[in-house]
Every structure is written in C-alpha cells, then in structure tokens.
C-alpha cells in the first residue's frame, strides 16, 4: 500500500479547520471561472493571463471548493498536444493554461494579444503559497523525489512560516495500482488541502490532474520542474537567459541526455509549424 511520506504542519499552525475531511463530495460548488483572452498555438489553447489573475482564480476555486486544474504551458506541452489530440483536449479542459515559456508569450503577442506576459511555474508557485499562507489555505505537494520534497518543505517553511502543508507525497516512477491510487486520493481528501501542486512533469502531470479532478475538490496546479528549482535540487537559468527565451539552452547544457530530444527536436518542430506553416491546428 502507498503511504504518503509526510503530514506536516509548521509549528503553531494547526490543520485547516474551515472544512473537515469528511465533507461529502456533493458539497462541491460549480466551477465558474471568469473568461480570459486566449489564442490557439498549434491547436492548443493558451491564455493571456497574469500572475495576479491566475493566483486570484486559484484562491477563488480553493475557497469555493470547486476543484479545478491549472496547466503551465511550454513549447514541449504544445508539441505533445500537437501530436496527441487526446492530450490537447485534456489541456483545453483546464481552468487556466498559462504561458510558462517565453516563446509562447511571443506567440500570443504575434497572434494579437499584445498584453500577454509570462506566468512561469517556479514563480507562480511561491505567489500562490504567499496568498495561501496569508489566507490560511492549506496546500499539498504531489511529486518530486523524497529528498527533493524534504528540501522543498524546508524552503517553504522558511519563506512562508504560516503556510499549512498537510500533505506531501513522492509517487513512484511506475504507475500506481488502483488500490494505491485510491489510497492516495483518500489521503489527499482527508488532509484538507485546498490547493495541490503537482510536479511530475509534462505530460504525466496533466494526465494525472485530469484523471483526478472529479474525485478531488482541491484545485490542482501542474508546476513541472518547480519542485526541483525551488528546493535547490537543480540549477535555474539566470534571469537574463529566461528573458531572452533561452532557458531551454541552459537546461539542455545541464541535462543533455535527458532533454536533447525535447529541446533540439521539439523546439525545431515548434518553429517550423508556427513560423513556416502558419500556426496550423
């Protein structure tokens, strides 16, 4: 059986008491997210949102126990969507699809949304945590290696002393059995988390969130490599490289064997289809 590795409450911060773990699933309120300007990039919807708008939406969904799902989109996600219509539908069902990658910000602006700005997963997560700490909203962590979760918990404790984190779990690389999956879902529900950060990588995290959004009333945010970056387990590109849209080059230099296909092949295909083929799909 799966055992979530931590039920952690920072000193002086009791578990959330606003709504108990035994609340029936039928108490979920309907999702009514506000409209957001968007464009389709190679067929995949990307929203011209902002940190303030996305954080506000997440906290609203958390407060109303509406469930929900937020994707942070990169060119890698766009190409996964381009190749798999089923995955494109999963991403399209999200309450927000933020432009995590700078090339997607440029693409949105080229498609007429001049106000588009980056909403980057490793920056979005601290923004959400700051609001959650201030408003007493419990958050959970799903993903990352056990040692990464330990480092991340310490970092969150330092940066957000009032933050409640009653659930954190490092899933195995293999698929969970049905029984294991049910136990994890029951543990998340019993923990009282209202916001669940999911950091198991694209497209796995988006598929996981979509598969569990009806069984969980917390809003889920797929934050990719944010766990590793915020925990200090992996180096993050300097800001000037990020602003230049070259973060991928920094990551490729650090993990060439794992990322060469994603960036060298995937980025070339993205440019070919968006620039030379006129954004089909």
The chain-level structural class is: alpha/beta
Order of helices and strands: EEEHEHHEHHEHEHEHEHHHH
Radius of gyration: 18 Å
The percentage helix is 40-55%
Separation of the first and last Cα atoms: 43 Å
Q: Biggest sheet, open or closed, and with what strands and sense?
A: 7 strands, mixed
Q: Total helix count?
A: 12
- The low-pLDDT segments are 1-27
Q: What is the arithmetic mean of pLDDT?
A: 88
Please give the domain count: 2
Strand order of the largest sheet: 1-7-6-8-9-4-5
Explain what the structure shows.
- The chain has 281 residues and is an alpha/beta fold.
- The chain has 2 domains: 45-231, no CATH class; 241-276, no CATH class.
- 47% of the residues lie in helices and 14% in strands.
- It has helices spanning 51-64, 75-83, 85-92, 102-110, 121-135, 146-159, 178-191, 204-212, 226-231, 239-243, 247-254, 256-276, and strands at residues 6-8, 38-41, 44-47, 69-73, 96-99, 139-143, 165-169, 195-199, 219-222.
- The strands form 2 sheets. It has a 7-stranded mixed β-sheet with strand order 1-7-6-8-9-4-5, with helices on both faces.
- Helix 1 (51-64) crosses helix 5 and helix 2 crosses helix 3 (85-92).
- Mean pLDDT is 88; it is low at 1-27.
């Amino acid at each position: 059986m799966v055992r979530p590795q931590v039920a952690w409450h920072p000193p002086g911060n009791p578990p959330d008491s606003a709504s108990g773990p035994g609340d029936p699933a039928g108490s979920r309120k309907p999702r009514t997210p506000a409209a957001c300007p968007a464009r389709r990039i190679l067929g995949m919807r990307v929203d011209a949102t902002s940190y303030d708008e996305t954080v506000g939406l997440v906290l609203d969904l958390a407060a109303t126990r509406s469930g929900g799902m937020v994707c942070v989109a990169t060119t890698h996600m766009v190409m996964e969507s381009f190749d798999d219509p089923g995955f494109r539908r999963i991403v399209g069902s999200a309450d927000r699809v933020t432009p995590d990658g700078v090339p997607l910000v440029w693409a949105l602006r080229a498609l007429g949304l001049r106000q588009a700005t980056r909403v980057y997963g490793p920056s979005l997560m601290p923004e959400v945590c700051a609001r959650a700490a201030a408003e007493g909203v419990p958050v959970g962590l799903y993903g990352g290696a056990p040692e990464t979760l330990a480092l991340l918990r310490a970092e969150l404790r330092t940066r957000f002393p009032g933050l409640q984190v009653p659930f954190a779990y490092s899933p195995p690389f293999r698929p969970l059995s049905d029984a294991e999956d049910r136990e994890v879902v029951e543990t998340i529900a019993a923990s009282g988390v209202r916001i669940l950060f999911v950091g198991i990588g694209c497209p796995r995290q988006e598929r996981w969130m979509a598969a569990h959004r009806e069984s969980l009333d917390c809003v889920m945010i797929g934050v990719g490599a944010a766990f590793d970056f915020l925990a200090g387990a992996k180096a993050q590109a300097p800001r000037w490289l990020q602003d230049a849209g070259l973060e991928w080059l920094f990551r490729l230099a650090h993990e060439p064997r794992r990322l060469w296909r994603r960036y060298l092949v995937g980025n070339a295909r993205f440019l070919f289809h968006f620039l030379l083929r006129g954004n089909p799909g």
